[in-house]
Amino acid sequence: MRNSMQPDAVAANAAQRDAGKRNSARICMLNYNAWGVIADLDGKNVHIGGEEVQHALMSRYLARSGHQVTSLVGDFGQQAVEQVGGVTVRKTFALDAGVPGLRFFAPRLTATWAGLKAAAADVYYVSCAGASVGIVAAFCQRHGRRLVFRIASDADCAPDTLMLTNARDRALYHYGLRRADAILAQTDKQAALLLKNYGLHAEVAGMFSDLPETVLAPAERATDLLWLANMRSMKRPEWFIDMVRALPELACEMAGGANPAELDLYARTEEGSRALPNLRFHGQVKFGTTRSLFARARIFVNTSSFEGFPNTYLQAWANGVPVVATFDPDGIIARLGLGVAVSDVAGAVAAARALLADPAGLAACSARCRAYAITRLAPETVSAPYLAALLA
């Protein structure tokens, strides 16, 4: 049958269909531990860190925006497939499943590959250096799909700083990194390091964060200092213990889960907290609980030696909480007055004292943090570089 539509109308309809395809996509995101945030678990059996938070927030935003999103996570006893917040969540494998020495291939590789195939996505997204980058890249190469990779830490940007001790994992990461169709970085520094060390270009993309509708004034909050992170050596939790010891007049809180490879660090930190009557030690908490911790804090403290772009900074600023930190990504804290950048415990103690001794100055800094969050952390603003990479 002959098409009765005019050529111009046919062309217009085709253009409209093409635009629809460009504006909507099937997206698969891979993060083994993301189930901990998606299901708001207590973290006892699953690692909950910044990348897991970003995965959960981003997948929900993409689903709300009309995309078909699949999240591939580990097996923590949940159903094989679940619908959460508009996202299809598929489980892959349990960490203790399989025979040691062979479990990388079965069930880990086989289950991950099956999950990637079941997602039937147009584009696949993974963040953080690891073997999964190479696995997803190989899948995308074989099936003609696109791969978008996002750097999660400064350490991801050079062979000498990779936090991957397994030669196989390092090789798979390098294989995938060089085959990604698009690479995103958290900071200008990361993009520069990637170009210097790998000769690869990355676009800078911000981070997703919850933004409370209202926040308390600093004077109405009960906690003077808050520290929140996974307890790993690079986070230096013992520095915060030293801070609290030097500031007995302040009300302080500390939260974070143990790193399986550094259980002794967690034990030492917990033991050190018991000798400090002005410190409330929470240990591992649910992601949902962190919202109340930030809501009642006057100052957030970060003592890390290096990071990517901490999610905790975004949570702090969204709640109008200044950051006193030993890590200042792209100099943003000092440049925009979002807290105080320091280099050691003595500097952090002095900065905290100075901020709390000046209620008007603390309130002004809190207002700057909140204003920054409102203007820079809106999901429509943050999502732009991600969508450009995913929908290219």
TrEMBL record:
<protein>
    <submittedName>
        <fullName>Glycosyltransferase family 4 protein</fullName>
    </submittedName>
</protein>
<dbReference type="Pfam" id="PF13692">
    <property type="entry name" value="Glyco_trans_1_4"/>
</dbReference>
<feature type="domain" description="Glycosyltransferase subfamily 4-like N-terminal">
    <location>
        <begin position="49"/>
        <end position="202"/>
    </location>
</feature>
<dbReference type="InterPro" id="IPR028098">
    <property type="entry name" value="Glyco_trans_4-like_N"/>
</dbReference>
<dbReference type="Pfam" id="PF13579">
    <property type="entry name" value="Glyco_trans_4_4"/>
</dbReference>
